[in-house]
Amino acid sequence: MRIANLRDRLVLVVDDRALDVESASGGLFSSDPQAIYPRWQEFGEWAASADISRAQDFDLADLRAPVPAPAQIFGIGLNYRDHAAEAGLDLPTSPPVFTKFVSSLTGPSGDIALPGLTVDWEVELVAVIGRPARNVPTSQGWEHIAGLTAGQDLSERTVQLEGPAPQFSLGKSFPGFGPTGPWIVTPEEFSNRDDIALSCGVNGESMQKGRTSDLIFSVPELVARLSAVLLLLPGDLIFTGTPAGVGGARNPKRFLTDGDELTTTIEGIGTMRHRLVAA
Fold first, then answer.
1. What is the C-alpha to C-alpha distance for residues 167 and 204, in angstroms, rounded to an integer?
2. I want to staple 208 with a disulfide (CB 3.0 to 4.6 A). Which of 37, 137, 164, 245 is the partner?
3. Which tens digits make up the pLDDT trace of 21-65?
């Protein structure tokens, strides 16, 4: 199952066509894309037998952030071995966690303003919580995931790293710094939900390639680790980390500039395209 946010309305995406959920369900479910997660199991049961004959063609440019207003957004740092290596840091023994503020979220296409000269890319698989999770064992982690989507953890490195204490959450939360999309794909749609390819390019040049099988802390383990500390809520987002290839680790360093096209692709989900523009 794929669900999306089409001009602020919840839709099912079936064979490249969109079915308006509120209309198709006779008002059983609202048009609000965020409201579906507390009713995720009920929604899934309805969607499995929904009449898709009224699905219509749509413009990809009209897609917006599929989960537009999560209560919590978690970012995971250094969650790929090759990224920790390029950063010159030891492998973490527990997930480094920060937040991205909700106002940073944007959809899978469009312009993103550059607030500084050191804006970096970070392709990430994003997991969406579908059931409340507290003290969940790793073996049950996937049971609490509604679906997966593509994400970029854009980062203004100067702001992120300026001290005396790093400001990860601020440096990663400028407007537009949390692109997600193009839609949410439920876990059963993947041939192997623990081994998904992800990549990132700038102006057609490959910058990052990785597979989620290389995660230090897998999606279900992240659910377990986070839920051991706090309550994960339906609709929360977990940015699961980025593989090697970020601009700040290159020699010489390379950052996004006015006019760059950033592409973000995740196997089984799709591609996001954004143009970076001078603020």
1. 31
2. 245
3. 999 999 999 999 999 999 999 999 999 999 999 999 999 999 999
- Answer left, alpha or beta for residue 158, where phi above 0 means left and psi between -120 and 50 means alpha: alpha
How many Å apart are CA 110 and CA 96, to the nearest integer?
Answer: 30
Q: Tokens 């992800």, residue? A: 198
From the list 176, 171, 148, 142, the residue with the least C-alpha distance to 67 is 148
Beta strands in the chain (DSSP E): 2-6, 9-14, 17-20, 63-64, 73-76, 97-99, 105-106, 109-114, 119-120, 123-129, 145-152, 155-156, 178-185, 197-202, 205-211, 237-239, 261-266, 270-278
Q: Where are the domains of the chain?
A: 2-63, 65-278
Place of tokens 């089984």: 268
**Residue among 223, 175, 168 at smallest CA distance from 65:** 175
pTM of the model: 0.98
Contact in structure between 68 and 34 (CB atoms under 8 Å)? yes
